[in-house]
DNA sequence: CCTTGTGTTGAG
DNA sequence: TCAACACAAGGG
């Protein structure tokens, strides 16, 4: 479909979550009566009276939203332009979903004052502020990646949750175990809704390609042996998983050790696991999970108030080739300029490929 | 086969 | 910058 700079097309079959809890505070700028013209391509959609058919003109209904373009199959595409080039933001079932995707992109690309389809009412809304910082903490390509895969809202919510964790930490709520500042600030890496096979007998978790390559050491091809990764959970328990690439399925997986995690956390299909890393130079990795219902993970087992001993020391266990990882994981901040470069590099096509 | 999203053009 | 349009390339 596309061979962009960093070609990748893990078709995450994400549920088409209705976009935007954050946009609920938004009001449509335009409320034009839907005056659909013509019909979708060869699909149904034949507006009243097939008379003035014009049948063959197959005119696609233009969108009333900025950055939204109709697709032949009745769906909607979102796109934004920058530097004379189109950046494709993905396709959506609903017109307004596409419009919201554009809004997200335009705010990331042109700042908070950019003209959007849905105007923001409150400017000091806490939610809006959080979203703004979320946008700024991710590169353009990351944001576009989320839009294309329809995971933007999940990630946004996840980041909000993370934030509150940090706050509770700062407020001293966490003199949990080792009396000292044992908990370090984390940054969200990615989240995955586990599939039936992820929690089944296969004893493995498939890491979506784009996330694996971005956050975890790459060792594709030859060294299929994999590496051991250490993750700390909420209760300071350290989990060791073998991480490797399966040539057979061309996928990155967590194998050995994973089933134990599934068992202990009682993970069910539909639940999600999220990965994090410490902010500092020590790339400690963390794993967290939440049930499908969304109930924030407060697993009785993993909360165990005082499981102190010396869990913190284990943090350093992640002694795998961090060197190769660091270049990936440490690209969170100064993304403003760098990602622009990476962006320009992709200008082979008229439309910039981001994934 | 169907869908995506790229190539391309012309209007604003 | 932007959307309209056509359709090639890819995925299923």
Automatic annotation (TrEMBL):
Q: What are the protein's UniProt keywords?
A: DNA-binding, Ethylene signaling pathway, Nucleus, Transcription, Transcription regulation
What region holds the AP2/ERF domain?
A: 64-119
The keyword rRNA-binding appears for this protein: no
Q: Say yes or no: keyword S-adenosyl-L-methionine present.
A: no
Q: What residue ranges carry the coiled-coil annotation?
A: none
Cellular compartments per GO CC? nucleus
Q: Which stretches make up the TF-B3 domain?
A: 190-293
Tell me the superkingdom of the source.
Answer: Eukaryota
> Which GO terms of the molecular function aspect are on file?
DNA binding; DNA-binding transcription factor activity
Region annotation Disordered: where it falls in the sequence: 158-180
Name the CDD domains on file: AP2, B3_DNA
- Family that this chain belongs to: Belongs to the AP2/ERF transcription factor family. RAV subfamily.
Instruction: Please report the name of this protein according to its UniProt entry.
Output: Uncharacterized protein
Species whose genome carries this gene: Mikania micrantha (bitter vine)
């Amino acid at each position: 479909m596309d061979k962009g700079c960093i070609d990748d097309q893990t078709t995450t079959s994400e549920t088409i979550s209705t976009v935007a809890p954050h946009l609920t505070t938004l009001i449509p700028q335009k409320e034009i009566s839907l005056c659909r013209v013509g019909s979708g391509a060869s699909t149904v959609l034949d507006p009243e009276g097939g008379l003035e058919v014009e049948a063959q003109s197959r005119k696609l209904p233009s969108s009333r939203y900025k950055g939204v373009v109709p697709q032949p199959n009745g769906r909607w595409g979102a796109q934004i332009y920058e530097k004379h080039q189109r950046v494709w933001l993905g396709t959506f079932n609903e017109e307004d979903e596409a419009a919201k995707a554009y809004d997200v992109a335009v705010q990331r690309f042109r700042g908070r004052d950019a003209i959007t389809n849905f105007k923001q009412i409150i400017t000091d809304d806490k939610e809006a502020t959080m979203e703004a910082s979320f946008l700024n903490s991710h590169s353009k390509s990351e944001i576009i990646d989320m839009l294309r895969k329809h995971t933007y809202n999940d990630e946004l919510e996840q980041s909000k949750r993370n934030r509150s964790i940090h706050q509770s930490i700062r407020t001293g709520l966490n003199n949990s175990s080792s009396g000292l500042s044992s908990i370090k600030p984390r940054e969200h890496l990615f989240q995955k809704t586990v599939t039936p096979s992820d929690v089944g007998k296969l004893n493995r978790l498939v890491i979506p390609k784009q996330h694996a390559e971005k956050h975890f050491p790459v060792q594709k091809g030859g060294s299929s042996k994999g590496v051991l990764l250490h993750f700390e959970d909420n209760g300071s328990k350290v989990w060791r998983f073998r991480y490797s690439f399966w040539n057979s399925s061309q996928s990155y997986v967590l194998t050995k050790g994973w089933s134990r995690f599934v068992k202990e956390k009682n993970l069910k299909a539909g639940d999600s696991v999220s990965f994090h890393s410490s902010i500092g130079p020590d790339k400690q990795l963390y794993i967290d999970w939440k049930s499908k219902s969304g109930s924030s993970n407060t697993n009785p087992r993993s909360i165990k108030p005082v499981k102190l001993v010396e869990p913190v020391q284990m943090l350093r266990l992640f002694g795998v080739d961090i060197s190769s990882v660091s270049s990936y994981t440490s690209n969170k901040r100064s993304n403003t300029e760098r990602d622009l470069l990476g962006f320009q590099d992709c200008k082979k096509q008229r439309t910039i490929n981001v994934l």
